[in-house]
Amino acid sequence: MAEPGSEALRPDLAVIARQVPAGVRVLDIGCGDGALMAVLRDTKQIDARGIEIDGALVERCVARGLSVVQGDADRDLAFYPDGAFDVAILSQTLQTAARPDRMLAELLRVGRRAFVSFPNFAYWRMRWALLSRGRMPVTRHLPVTWYETENIHHMTVRDFEELARDLGIELENRWFFTREREIGPAGANWRAEYALFEVRR
Amino acid sequence: MNASSQIFRLPHPLPLDGGQALEGATIAYETYGELAADKANAILVCHALTGDQYLASPHPVTGKPGWWERMVGPGKPIDTDRYHVICANVIGSCMGSTGPASAAPDGKPWAMRFPVITVRDMVRGLVALLDGLGIERLHAVVGGSMGGMQTLSLAANFPERAARVLAIATTARHSAQNIAFHEVGRQAIMADPNWRGGDYYGDGSAPDAGLAVARMAAHITYLSEAGLTEKFGRRLQDRDAKSFGFDADFQIESYLRYQGSGFTRRFDANSYLYITRAMDYFDIAEAHGGTLAEAFAGHAMGKGARFCLVSFDTDWLYPTAESRHVVHALNAAGAPVSFVELSAPFGHDSFLLDVPALDRVVKGFLDG
């Protein structure tokens, strides 16, 4: 296994790893191969829990000693008690939910606060692809065709902010990324390929 | 591999869920690998209904390799170069631990006078063994099928005794379907004229026909329909055409008959009655008002054991939904739990067979 913290985390995960305080209770929904959980364990003494739908990825998580349950966040979040976690993480998964609004509410039921990242469908390359070719964009960040993609609820930075307001969710912090680098917040709904929000009730 | 066979005599009467206590009970067990000086590297492996303590050493009756030889040994997923592995015959069984074939205090076999036992009683016996060995906390308790039930029962009733709980292809309660299949097996045994109310010991005529039928029916539940079709299909056994009689025309019939008769040479029919009864009585939530999460309250955040549950997609005896039910309860209890459904073609028996993904999960969980 790599040295603690030495794994190259995706930039949104690196921000989360930096922001989460040591020793808190963390649930990572859609934890993939457990890269973030491993960093949290190795650098912040966090015994994180994960949910991942892909069995092969769960197997890799278990093999690295992480507590990960194969499951579907749409269905399985309901089995966690209120406030079971200090921090819930939902990275690049909200757009795959059957009902993103309900998942967001569930997230802040089981977690006191949450980190949520998602691809921004209003990124200018998306807009340009749709405008110029008139077809659903297939980009480096969203490389799957419309009929195969798991991303069934595309949204924009502005959509997310409005949904949060409607649900009475506070947006505490936000970060934006393009081409795997953090960018400033100015014109983020145009310029950001994806976004990360820290939210709480 | 190098195994040590021993008999442990319980120093105290074993209290049973049925209200009685078993005096002078013995537990036969095998060990593999060195026990560390601090006794912190012990792994207890719990066997299934018709399993025994011959985990990774040849069976004394059949001469066949240990039932989990592929999983346990030097450099294997349960690595005996690192761990001291213990496997004990459960109470009620017939391979050296006290069961219905053992002598009662009057010197005659217990037979049906043996008290009805539960999975928790089996676990109490195992904990008494651990006490005797001076092992306070296991590195892990591991088991598949009824072995998995024992791991969950140990976690629920003795939460401090294991640091890791690995439960494979199992359930927290026997379903109506599970009970139904067991009842078919029990009735087959009891319908055999040689059963004679269980008093068949010592006169050379045991209810082998009934026990064989019980085994045949149960064996079907351990396999998958796709697996049966692939292995046997409608192929005929040593003949070119149907016999228009009741011989084993089909390969599957011949196979089941072979499985049934082979089983009677190594297993006691009354033990089969008692152990299936114990499994049917199994329902961990029952003692907690039906709420399974309550049973695992001793494993809340930061305390207790880590859990790992594994199910197989072709297992219809203890299907994935049963494992999920346990996982959800552990989540609700705040216990650290991993769960994965593995894909394997062998039905319930997958946990005993060649499933490389299971090897990786077992090794990763035990070493992590």
Question: Describe the biggest sheet of chain A?
Answer: 8 strands, mixed
**Strand residue content of chain A:** 15-25%
Q: Which consecutive residue ranges of chain B, at least 5 long each, have pLDDT under 50?
A: none
> In CATH's first tier, which class of chain A applies?
Alpha Beta
In helices, the fraction of residues of chain B equals 25-40%
Write the element-wise H/E pattern of chain B from the N-terminal end onward. Answer: EEEEEEEEHEHEHHHHHHEHEH
* CATH structural architecture of the largest domain in chain B: 3-Layer(aba) Sandwich
CATH evolutionary superfamily of the largest domain in chain B: Alpha/Beta hydrolase fold, catalytic domain
Overall average pLDDT of chain B? 96
- Distance separating the two termini of chain A: 37 Å
Question: Any overview of this molecule?
Answer:
The complex is a heterodimer of chains A (201) and B (368). Chain A has a single domain, classed as Rossmann fold (3-Layer(aba) Sandwich), CATH 3.40.50. Helices cover 33% and strands 23% of the residues of chain A. Chain A has an 8-stranded mixed sheet with strand order 3-2-1-4-5-8-6-7, sandwiched between helices. Chain A is globular. Chain B has 2 domains: 257 residues, Rossmann fold, CATH 3.40.50.1820; 99 residues, Rna Polymerase Sigma Factor, Chain: A (Orthogonal Bundle). Chain B is built from 10 helices and 12 strands. In chain B, the strands form 3 sheets. An 8-stranded mixed sheet of chain B has the order 1-4-8-5-9-10-11-12, sandwiched between helices. Chain B has a two-stranded antiparallel ribbon with strand order 2-3. A two-stranded parallel ribbon of chain B has the order 6-7. In chain B, helix 2 links the parallel strand 9 and strand 10. In chain B, helix 4 packs across helix 6. Chain B starts with a strand and ends with a helix. Chains A and B meet through helix 3 and strand 3 of A and helix 9, strand 12 and helix 10 of B.
